[in-house]
Request: fold
Amino acid sequence: MIVKRFSGRSAEEALALAKWELGDDAIILSSGKARDRWWKFWESGFQVLVAADYPRKTAAANGAEEAASTRVPVESPVGSGGRDMGVDHKLDDVITLVQKLGQRLDRLAPVMDNPAHQEWEEWFLARGVTPYWARELAHDLLRLAGENANPLDALGPLINDRLGPPAPIHLTDAARVLFLGPTGSGKTTTIAKLAAYFHLERQKSVLLISNDTFRVAAAEQLKTFAEIIGVPFQVALRPQDIPDLMTRHSADVVLIDTAGHSPQQAMYLAELRSLVDLAKPTDIQLVLPATMHPDLLTDVANRFAEGLPAKLCFTKLDEVRYPGAVLAAALSLGWPLSYFTDGQHVPDDIQVAFADRLAEWLQGGTVHG
Reply:
């Protein structure tokens, strides 16, 4: 494995350099302000620590191919018009990257020395928002607020505009909801809260299915919840059992629990894809704990739900002082939010993920503060 640090004038530039060298599959280990002396001229700078299984270019390609990738294209009999199309394509990528970086720097130049912008950037950073999004949000907040208004008055509309409306589970038709997420994310408790709400308050018939046969007593926990709520519960020993269980136990809402595994386990992720194909869910809920670092939240989400129409359900908001990590991850992913949970009480400690609520928590600190 290769672990390397990349620095840039902005987080975006540092990430671009990392992906250019190590490829799109590289994993961000950490990020923050650069400490290199070279950056003192700019009074700011950012760095990322990135890991990859192998470099973008293999050892077999670092000879003539490496030289060709940096050579100015010359007239050649290959390719269209006698030009080396591979080299042209590489140069086009470089030119596009440089242009984007130039545009980014031009945008940042007027605000780098703005005390108000720096103050609000620090405000977001202190609340757990990543450097990139702290800078973006500070810029947009001051722009929306104008000169004579309190910037915090614009925080709710800004986050609402950035994240969009929430996307909770719709009950217009028979709902089949699949819950994904890493170990300890709170999937089982979240399912119990939703089951209680749908059955006791919305008067819907509910079926609980557990496919978690790995964690000790996982099925027993969900079975206990089902008995308390008064809804049927079934265990699917294999993903192939789920379609038959849904046919034999018809319900308005089917909530399916899955085992929590590390996103590094390729076999488990492949099994999840098979489960999606078999269950044909109308809704996929990716359950993530607010206690994770925002970069890790983004990486885990992409590994679990890449290519799936997943919604984000953030749990354990009562265990963090500020929801900056949740906000940064949601902004980076761009996926719809569904629910926030902020405690263990069933069914009380769950709510639809309105962006305005996230803005309130960001200002007040802790969901109960």
User: Anything to note?
Assistant: Confidence is low (pLDDT under 50) at residues 36-43, 58-83.
